[in-house]
Amino acid sequence: GDDVDDIYGPKTEAAVRQFQTDQGIMIDGVVGPETYGQLGID
């Protein structure tokens, strides 16, 4: 896999968008409150 580099780049955004799609939540590529909630993060 890819190394973690602490940068929110295009690969991270694509992964977030895919997660949002899979979860049926608003797709914006941003890890906001709704996405955090689906991740189980407070």
How do the strands and helices of this protein lay out in sequence?
Layout: H1 10-23, H2 33-39
Pfam family, one: PG_binding_1
Organism: Crocosphaera watsonii WH 0003
Domain Peptidoglycan binding-like: 3-39
Description:
The chain has helices spanning about 10-25, 35-40. Helices cover about 50% and strands about 0% of the residues. With about 40 residues, the protein is mainly α. InterPro entries: Peptidoglycan-bd-like, PGBD-like_sf, PGBDSf. This is Peptidoglycan binding-like domain-containing protein. It holds the Pfam family PG_binding_1. It comes from Crocosphaera watsonii WH 0003.
Assess the beta-strand content as a share of residues.
Answer: under 5%
Work out the number of β strands.
0
Q: Structural class per helix/strand content?
A: mainly alpha
Write down the overall geometry. globular
Low-confidence parts: none
What does the largest sheet look like? none
Rg over alpha carbons: 11 Å
Protein name: Peptidoglycan binding-like domain-containing protein
InterPro entries: Peptidoglycan-bd-like (IPR002477), PGBD-like_sf (IPR036365), PGBDSf (IPR036366)
Domain Peptidoglycan binding-like: 3-39
Organism: Crocosphaera watsonii WH 0003
Concise structural overview:
This is Peptidoglycan binding-like domain-containing protein. With 42 residues, this protein is an all-alpha fold. Helix content is 50%, strand content 0%.
